[in-house]
Specification:
With 371 residues, this protein is α/β, with parallel strands linked by helices. The chain is 44% helix and 16% strand. It contains 15 helices and 13 strands.
C-alpha cells in the first residue's frame, strides 16, 4: 500500500478538507440535488468526479459553480487521477463510486467516506450490489458511513458495520428562494395531482398511474402529471392510453424548474417501493405542497401521519388512493398538514444547520487512525 501519499495528503487538518466526490449518475435526481447543495454550502474544497452521466448533469454542476470533471474509463484511470490530484479524502456516492473509491483508498491510504442514499434491491443485480456495498462498508478502508435516514443505518448495523463508523445525517435544503413560484406553462389546470421522480421500479410510478386512473374516474376535472424520465416510461404511456386518459395523465418528462411545478400541485404522491430521504419530499415540505406517501424507508422518519402528511402502509395502494382523495377533497386538511410540514423541514432538514456536522466529520475522517 502506498500509504506515504495518503499521510502527506491528510497532514494538514486545520485547512479546509480537500474532498473528491465520486458519482455515477443517470441524471439530475434527488442524490444529485443533494450533492450539488452539499458542494455549495458545506465548508470544504469540493470536486465532483463524474464516473458516468449525461452532459446536462455536468453542465448543471458547472453552471452552479461546482468544480466537476469527467473521470471515466475504469479503475486505472481513476487511480491515475487520484495520484495527480491528491485529494484529502474521498466521498463515494452509489455503488460504482464506492467500489472505485475503495480501490483508491487501498492503493493510497486515503480516508474514504461512503454516503448511503438508499438501497433499491429490486432485482438480482441490485441485490448483489447491496450485499457488496454492505461488505465494503465493514472494511477498515471505509472510515465513515453517512446514512441519510435511520432506516439505512439500521440495515448497515444488521450487516455488522461498526456503530462508531455510522453517522445519520438527513438530507437538508438551503434557505428557500425568495422568488415567487410561477405556474409552468405546461402545467394543466387545477386540481392537479403529481408524481416526481425517476420512472423506475423502485419509485413506483406504475403504482401511481393505477392511483391516478382510479381517481380520474371519480374526479372528472382532475389532471395528473408524472415529472421525470426512466425505463418504465413506455409501459406507463401504454397503460394510460389503454385507460383512455392520455389527455389527463401527462408525462412531460424531466423539468428544470421543479419548485414551480411543486407549487402548482394540489397534492404530491410518493408511491415508492423503497426510499432513503427523498429530496423532493423536503422540497414539497418547504414549498407548502400537501403530501400523500407510502411509509417506506426514511419517509416515516420525516413525516407523521395526520400531522404533516397522510401516510399509507407500504404497498397498500387502496389505502394510498383513499388518503390522496382526502387531500384533494379537504382544503382545511391540506392547510393544516402543510403548516406542520414546513415547520418540520425548517427545524430538522435545514442544510445550514447541518453544515457544521459535515465539516467536523470531514476533519475527523481526514485523520484516520488506521494505516
Amino acid at each position: 500500500m502506498d500509504s506515504a501519499l495518503g499521510r502527506e495528503l491528510t497532514a494538514t487538518v486545520d485547512a479546509p478538507p480537500q474532498v473528491v466526490h465520486l458519482l455515477s449518475s443517470g441524471g439530475f435526481y434527488g442524490l444529485e440535488r443533494m450533492l450539488l447543495d452539499h458542494c455549495l454550502h458545506v465548508p470544504a474544497s469540493h470536486q465532483v468526479w463524474l464516473l458516468d452521466g449525461p452532459d446536462s448533469l455536468l453542465q448543471r454542476f458547472a453552471t452552479a459553480g461546482v468544480d466537476i470533471r469527467r473521470c471515466g474509463g475504469g479503475p486505472r484511470e481513476l487511480l491515475r487521477a487520484v495520484r495527480q490530484v491528491g485529494p484529502g479524502l474521498i466521498n463515494a456516492h452509489g455503488f460504482k463510486g464506492l467500489v472505485l473509491g475503495w480501490l483508491a483508498a487501498c492503493r493510497f491510504g486515503l480516508p474514504l467516506v461512503a454516503t448511503q442514499h438508499g438501497f433499491t434491491p429490486s432485482n438480482r443485480k441490485q441485490r448483489l450490489y447491496t450485499w457488496l456495498t454492505l461488505q465494503l462498508c465493514r472494511t477498515p478502508q471505509v472510515t465513515s458511513v453517512v446514512c441519510v435516514a435511520d432506516s439505512i443505518a439500521r440495515l448497515l448495523r444488521r450487516a455488522g458495520v461498526r456503530e462508531s463508523k455510522l453517522h445519520v445525517l438527513p438530507n437538508g435544503l438551503p434557505a428557500s428562494d425568495a422568488r415567487a413560484a410561477q405556474r409552468p406553462p405546461l402545467a394543466p389546470p387545477a386540481p392537479l395531482l403529481g408524481f416526481v421522480g425517476r420512472l423506475s421500479l423502485e419509485k413506483g410510478p406504475d403504482l401511481f398511474v393505477e392511483l391516478a386512473i382510479a381517481l380520474c374516474a371519480r374526479h372528472p376535472a382532475l389532471s395528473v402529471v408524472l415529472l421525470g424520465e426512466g425505463p418504465q416510461r413506455g409501459d406507463l404511456e401504454a397503460r394510460i392510453a389503454a385507460a383512455g386518459l392520455s389527455r389527463r395523465i401527462l408525462l412531460p418528462g424531466y423539468q428544470d424548474h421543479m419548485a414551480d411545478w411543486l407549487g402548482a400541485l394540489d397534492a404530491l404522491v410518493l408511491s415508492s417501493r423503497t426510499e432513503g430521504t427523498p429530496m423532493v419530499l423536503l422540497e414539497a415540505m418547504q414549498l407548502g405542497t400537501p403530501i400523500a406517501a407510502f411509509a417506506v424507508g426514511g419517509i416515516p422518519d420525516v413525516l407523521a401521519h395526520e400531522q404533516s402528511a397522510l401516510l399509507s402502509p407500504a404497498g397498500d395502494l387502496p389505502h394510498l388512493i383513499a388518503q390522496t382523495e382526502r387531500l384533494l377533497n379537504d382544503s382545511a386538511l391540506r392547510q393544516r398538514l402543510v403548516a406542520c410540514a414546513r415547520q418540520v423541514q425548517q427545524e430538522r432538514f435545514h442544510l445550514p444547520g447541518q453544515t457544521e456536522r459535515w465539516s467536523q466529520l470531514y476533519h475527523r475522517a481526514g485523520t484516520p487512525s488506521w494505516r
